[in-house]
DNA sequence: ATCATTATTGATAAATGTTGTCAACTATGA
DNA sequence: TCATAGTTGACAACATTTATCAATAATGAT
């Protein structure tokens, strides 16, 4: 229920090529890493894990940004306030982050439109979008 | 309606002293800066603005962290994804950030409990808290 | 008001984190 | 198979954040 389904290699290649980017072994390795753990990783962790495979840190930075732009990576915050990246699917969604195991799951169908209307009427603010992270305990850690 | 009321000097001093911290001219200068602009500042901006007053960057870092711990500073994200700090009042609240003027206003009475219950029933996730930022257009920029 | 205590300051260095450069390499579409 | 053009990794350059420490100054007690 939590881990997202593995992304077919062909689909990932297609996503890269669509925007003129190339599908390289290094980029696939980075993506596979994120796919392997729903808790996600910080940039430092990714470079550390992939260093033995001789993947340079510049490549890690570039790949993470590319995956972000494609919508396959979203960020959440540690309790320490640090960025952590998590595999996801393109499109808007919210993240539920477990306080204990750090696992992050997407919550895409949670509607905030009611709240946005309330805000509009109370403050005159025309809400166009939002970033929302929940933290708490996942079913396994409860 | 947007800018928060100026914080009395005595109250700020009290807040610092309460936790064993001291109320110094440097710390007051940092706070006054944040109080002066509801759009907030990045750390780099604060150090740049206060450099002529001979306030070291280490002091800026320390003071911002202290103000954060006291609850008087909250962070929001730029469109570029960067941290920006904004003056606020202690306690939980959400931030409304204007896309044009970057002004940030607090929205403390927006209830997410309904949404949290919905999430709990749908995912089994026990929500304990959240971080929520809205972006859009403030009344003046609409 | 004075004083001793002890947190704070600024300068500097050290440590991290991020981006730029470029020749060699390789994925891609023709 | 081939030419094109994006990609790689090593390294340098740059930016950001933290640690150190002697001198200074805010605080509570007197």
| Poorly predicted parts of chain A | none
Decide which structural class fits the backbone of chain A: alpha+beta
Radius of gyration of chain A: 17 Å
- How much helix is in the residues of chain A? 25-40%
Widest sheet: strand ordering of chain A: 4-3-5
Count the beta strands of chain A: 5
The main sheet of chain A comes to: 3 strands, mixed
Write down the CATH topology of chain A: Arc Repressor Mutant, subunit A
CATH superfamily of chain A: Winged helix-like DNA-binding domain superfamily/Winged helix DNA-binding domain
Sketch the topology of chain A as an H/E string, one letter per element: HHHHEEEEHE
Number of helices of chain A: 5
The interface involving the most residues is between:
A-B, 34 and 33 residues
The average pLDDT of chain A is 91
Count of all domains of chain A: 1
Q: Strand percentage of chain A, roughly?
A: 15-25%
What's the oligomerization state?
A: homodimer
Intertermini distance of chain A: 15 Å
CATH domain class of chain A? Mainly Alpha
CATH level-two architecture of chain A: Orthogonal Bundle
Shape of chain A: globular
């Amino acid at each position: 229920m939590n881990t997202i389904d593995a992304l077919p290699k062909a689909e990932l290649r297609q996503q890269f090529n669509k925007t003129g980017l190339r599908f390289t072994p290094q980029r696939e390795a980075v993506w596979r890493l994120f796919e392997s753990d729903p808790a996600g990783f910080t940039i430092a962790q990714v470079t550390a894990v992939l260093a033995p495979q001789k993947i340079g840190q510049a490549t890690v930075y570039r790949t993470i940004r590319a995956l972000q732009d494609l919508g396959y990576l979203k960020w959440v915050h540690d309790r320490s306030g640090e960025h952590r990246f998590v595999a996801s699917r393109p499109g808007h969604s919210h993240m539920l982050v477990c306080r204990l195991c750090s696992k992050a799951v997407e919550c895409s169908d949670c509607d905030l439109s009611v709240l946005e209307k309330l805000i509009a009427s109370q403050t005159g603010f025309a809400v166009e979008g939002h970033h929302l992270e929940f933290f708490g305990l996942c079913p396994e850690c409860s």
